[in-house]
């Protein structure tokens, strides 16, 4: 803007001691309004137009600047603390969810054990049934075939290795395993 001809003329503005014309710094006369003093704006200065008579920042703007500076640091601190709280909450919820999942697995396994125990009790009743006491030949033949099926099933179970230590070992330790002090039966 300093190179535009409109702004290169040194225009004096201000209260004048006399209502006549005044000569400015460059020596060219300018007409002034009465009661306005003269001062000159130096647009060609290297300090970017700021001079020692520049107005200080207003109190509202200064307070706003301080509030923004304080607000930025406090909002960052608030954000960091809320992120830490969220992280802790997620850790707790994950661990509680994992515990809940393990508990659900144990419940299912417990129900399976109860069901297997009930089935074994029913099979034992069938195995212990005296066939001579049954009068109906069809019922007697059915009970005899069930006894045979149960005996075959149990002999196959005894020949296969047990899966229970693999399933329950991680929850209850390696009970009766190779490194334990418990006697083997």
UniProtKB/TrEMBL annotation:
Region (Disordered): 1-79, 153-185
Signal peptide coordinates: none
Chain intervals with Low complexity compositional bias: 40-53
Polar residues: bias regions: 9-39
Name of the protein described by the UniProt record: No apical meristem-associated C-terminal domain-containing protein
Pfam families linked to this entry: NAM-associated
Coiled-coil intervals: 103-137
Ranges of residues in domain No apical meristem-associated C-terminal: 3-150
InterPro entries: NAM-associated_C
Keywords: Coiled coil
Record has Coiled coil as a keyword: yes
């Amino acid at each position: 803007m300093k190179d535009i001809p409109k702004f290169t003329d040194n225009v004096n503005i201000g209260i004048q001691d006399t209502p006549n014309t005044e000569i400015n710094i460059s020596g060219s006369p300018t007409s002034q309004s009465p009661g306005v003093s003269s001062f000159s704006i130096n647009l060609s200065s290297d300090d970017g137009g700021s001079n020692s008579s520049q107005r200080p920042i207003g109190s509202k703007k200064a307070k706003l600047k301080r509030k923004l500076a304080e607000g930025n640091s406090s909002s960052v601190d608030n954000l960091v603390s809320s992120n830490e709280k969220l992280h802790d909450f997620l850790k707790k919820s994950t661990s509680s969810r994992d515990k809940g999942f393990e508990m659900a697995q144990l419940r299912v396994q417990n129900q399976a054990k109860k069901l297997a125990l009930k089935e074994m009790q029913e099979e034992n009743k069938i195995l212990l049934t005296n066939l001579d006491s049954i009068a109906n030949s069809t019922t007697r033949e059915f009970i005899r075939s069930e006894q045979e099926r149960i005996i075959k099933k149990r002999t196959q179970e005894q020949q296969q290795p047990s899966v229970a230590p693999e399933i329950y070992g991680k929850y209850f330790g390696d009970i009766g395993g190779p490194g334990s002090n418990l006697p083997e039966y």
